[in-house]
Structures are given as structure tokens and as C-alpha cells.
Specification:
The complex is a heterodimer of chains A (274) and B (178). Chain A contains nine helices and seven strands; from the N terminus they run αααααααβαββββββα. By secondary structure, chain A is of the alpha+beta class. In chain A, a hairpin with a 2-residue loop joins β2 and β3. Chain B is built from ten helices and no strands. With 178 residues, chain B is mainly alpha-helical.
Chain lengths: 274, 178
């Protein structure tokens, strides 16, 4: 095998740095680096450059105004130019303002007529829940209270809503808590917990149980392309939505249900803990 | 393909990559306000393409190709000089040895590491447009060579030499004593 010339070796060096070499290429590269101090020094410089760029010139976050305009495009409104509108969900996070902002978002998302025509049908509920999840993802603010600690999220929700939400810790199952928010569904505020999995989010919303709900059944649906799982434990109904694969969402639901049973079994002892 | 499907695909293909789109536009245009205009234009183009039934295999590369086109049309309208400069870089690329490293004082890795934000930003801004866009796609957005090739329309070999050249320029600028 002939040695690649210097220029080719430099290109290989970049390919190695960029993870573009196959296993055989990596081995060959390591051999060349060991044999050639100048090449090794060049590799060290390139690695230093990469670290520096990552630390000092990271990818920038798109401004909220841009996110909002992209969101408007999906919602089918007229495309507004930058100056035209301000984000409806900006402003002080007081409950009243927030509820109004959320209601506005839901109305925009569903279309007013649709909302009036079927505000109590289960589909409208799920639409609202999925819209809230999408809004959270698009705005980059999926939660109102950011915390990985359920003992922070639970009292925050309890202070805003008349219901006592069950908040469980699923970090061990691979779904650390990201925080909580309040969604407005069918005109009422409901607690939503947000869990993370890699870069993905799972929103799980607690709803009033309906008389027809069978605790043993999980209902799998797809709303706006998102997988949604709905279930009830007799006392409460839940809906989980995510951009995860349906399989992973199922794993989440299983872990969540198990943890809720355990939490209830503990007699709500966690409420007083800490 | 209906409007609704187009919008759903937009939510799926475009929204998750808005940060990448904005970063590219920001580094190409050098100005946050111009970058927003460019990305907004790109979003409109993307939505139209999806409503027309565009099939998207690699959404991020696809979107960045649109952002890049939007940026170049924006330059043509607002900054004709930038295009001339970009053309100049392409020319230069064809002639010079893209990888020559004959800088006499050998650049030091330690110096590169201690460069501050302003220095790094200035060094990247100084790169010719074609090198800058390749570097931004690779380093800020983590695109593979293949995706960069798709987004810029350049063969993979060209992507590799542009990237090598961009890095060589940055190493020379940031790694020699200042």
C-alpha cells in the first residue's frame, strides 16, 4: 500500500476529526499520527480549533420573533412581517395573563369555529393538548416552571390550580423531569408535566376522568402527526404526547403509570417530604 | 399534496431546524436583522415547496440549502458586492493549493484555545463566503460531509477541501501570536 501524499493525509486528518472515516480508516489514521509528529501537531491544532469554535461561537438560537412567525405559517394565518406582531405568550407570567395567552393560542390553533362546534369532544381535547405541546417546542419554552425536582414542580402547580397533580420522578426510567406548565383545555387550566428523553420532550396532561374510561385500556391516537396515548386510572385521566417514536412513548407511559401507582400507594407521603 | 399536509411537513421538517437555519443566515449575513429576513424568506420558500409536494429525505440539509439560496438572492438584491467576493473565492480556490500550510511560525494549539469570542467571530467573519458556509454547517450545525454537499451543491471532495482551507485560515489567524 502506497503512502498517501501529504495533502491527502491532511484531508484524511479532517475526515478523522469529523468522524467521517470508517474503522479501517481510523486505524490507518492512528498509525500515521503515531509515525508523524508534524501530522499529530496539526491534529492537535485542529482539535483546539474545534473546541474553541464550539465554546466561543456556538450555534445561535433563533429569536422568538422568528419562531412565532414560523408558527403562524403552520397555523395558516397570513404571513406577517417582522414588525407586525408581538408574541402573544410574552409578558408577565401572572396566571390571568397566562390563561388569556394560552386561550388565544388554542383558539388560533384550532380555529374559532372548530372550537365552538366541538369544544367538549375528546378530539378537541387532544387537539388542544397536542397544540400546547407543539407550542412549547416551537417557542423553546416548553415549561413555565423549570425544575428537575418534583418537590418544586408539585407545589408550583398546586399554587395555580385547584387540583393536586401527581408529579413522579422518572429519571431512573430514562425520562428526567424538565418541569411543568399549565395548559388550557376546554376552558379550564390543567396541569401538564414535561419530561425529557435525549433532545425530545414528552408532555403528559392530567384531565378529569370520564365515566366511560376503562382503566385497563390505553388508547393510541395520532394527532397532527404526533403520537398520543390516552389512559385513565379511574381517578384521573391522562394524555401523553411526544415527538418520540410511539414505542418510546409507550415505554414512557408504562413507567409513568407504574410510578403513579407507587406514589398513590405511598399515601401521598411525598407531599410532606421536604 | 394538500395545504394541510404541507403545513404538517413544515412543522416536522423545518421547525426543529430553525436554530440551524438562523445560525447559517447569521454567519452569512453578519447581522441578526438581515438573518431574520433571510430565514423568514427561506421559511416561505420551504412551505411552498412542501405544499407542492417536495419529498425531503434529509430535512436539515434541505432546509439549509434553501436558507443558502435565500441568502444569496438577498445578497444579490441588497449587497451585490458580497456575491462578487464569493465568486472571487471560488476562483482562488481553483488555483491555489487549498491546503498549503507554509506559515513560518508554527501555530500553537494553546494560543487557539485562548482566543476570545470576539477574535473567533472576527476570524470566521473574515473567511470567504464559500469557506464560511461550509465551516458553519460542519461546526455549528454538525452536518455530515454528505449533508453539506447536498446543502451547498458542491461535490464531497470540494466540501472537504473547503473545510480544510477554512480551518487552515482560522488556525493561522488564531494560532499565531497576536
Amino acid at each position: 500500500m502506497t503512502e498517501p501524499d501529504f495533502e491527502d493525509r491532511l484531508l484524511l486528518l479532517h475526515a478523522a476529526l469529523d468522524g467521517e472515516l470508517d474503522a479501517a480508516g481510523v486505524i490507518e489514521m492512528e498509525r500515521m499520527l503515531a509515525a508523524d509528529p508534524e501530522l499529530a501537531a496539526q491534529y492537535a491544532r485542529l482539535e483546539a480549533l474545534r473546541q474553541t469554535i464550539r465554546a466561543k461561537a456556538p450555534r445561535e438560537r433563533a429569536p422568538d420573533s422568528l419562531r412565532l412567525r414560523a408558527l403562524e405559517m403552520i397555523e395558516g394565518g397570513e404571513l406577517s412581517r417582522r414588525e407586525a406582531k408581538t408574541a402573544p405568550w410574552r409578558g408577565p407570567p401572572s396566571w390571568k395573563n397566562f390563561a388569556a395567552a394560552m386561550a388565544a393560542t388554542v383558539v388560533v390553533t384550532l380555529g374559532l369555529q372548530h372550537l365552538i362546534a366541538s369544544r367538549d369532544s375528546p378530539d378537541a381535547l387532544l387537539q388542544a393538548i397536542v397544540s400546547a405541546h407543539m407550542r412549547g417546542q416551537i417557542s423553546g419554552q416548553p415549561v413555565d416552571v423549570v425544575s428537575t425536582d418534583r418537590h418544586t414542580v408539585k407545589p408550583w402547580l398546586a399554587g395555580k390550580l385547584p387540583v393536586a397533580a401527581v408529579v413522579v420522578d422518572l429519571a431512573e426510567a430514562g425520562f428526567p423531569l424538565a418541569g411543568g406548565r399549565i395548559d388550557v383545555v376546554a376552558g379550564a387550566g390543567v396541569p401538564t408535566l414535561v419530561y425529557k428523553r435525549r433532545d425530545h420532550l414528552v408532555s403528559v396532561t392530567e384531565l378529569r376522568a370520564e365515566s366511560g374510561d376503562d382503566p385497563a385500556t390505553l388508547r393510541h391516537l395520532a394527532v397532527e402527526g404526533y403520537p398520543v396515548v390516552r389512559w385513565s386510572d379511574g381517578e384521573h385521566a391522562y394524555a401523553a404526547v411526544s415527538d418520540l417514536s410511539p414505542t418510546e412513548l409507550d415505554a414512557f407511559v408504562a413507567a409513568f403509570r407504574q410510578a403513579v401507582v407507587k406514589e398513590r400507594g405511598a399515601g401521598g407521603g411525598a407531599e410532606t417530604a421536604k | 399534496m394538500t395545504r394541510k399536509t404541507g403545513r404538517r411537513n413544515f412543522a416536522e421538517h423545518v421547525l426543529p431546524h430553525l436554530d440551524d437555519a438562523y445560525s447559517l443566515a447569521r454567519w452569512l449575513a453578519g447581522d441578526p436583522t438581515d438573518a431574520e429576513d433571510i430565514v423568514q424568506d427561506a421559511c416561505i420558500r420551504a412551505l411552498r415547496a412542501l405544499e407542492d409536494g417536495a419529498l425531503v429525505e434529509r430535512p436539515r440539509a434541505w432546509l439549509l440549502a434553501i436558507v443558502r439560496n435565500a441568502a444569496y438572492s438577498w445578497f444579490a438584491k441588497n449587497r451585490p458586492r458580497a456575491i462578487i467576493l464569493a465568486g472571487g473565492a471560488e476562483e482562488a480556490e481553483a488555483h491555489e493549493n487549498a491546503l498549503e500550510t507554509g506559515t513560518s511560525p508554527s501555530p500553537e494549539a494553546e494560543l487557539i484555545e485562548t482566543a476570545d469570542r470576539a477574535m473567533v467571530a472576527a476570524a470566521i467573519d473574515d473567511l470567504p463566503l464559500v469557506y464560511r458556509e461550509t465551516l458553519v454547517m460542519r461546526e455549528m450545525s454538525g452536518l455530515s460531509y454528505r449533508e453539506i454537499s447536498e446543502a451547498t451543491g458542491a461535490p464531497i471532495g470540494t466540501v472537504m477541501s473547503r473545510l480544510a482551507r477554512a480551518r487552515a485560515l482560522l488556525v493561522a489567524k488564531l494560532g499565531t501570536s497576536r
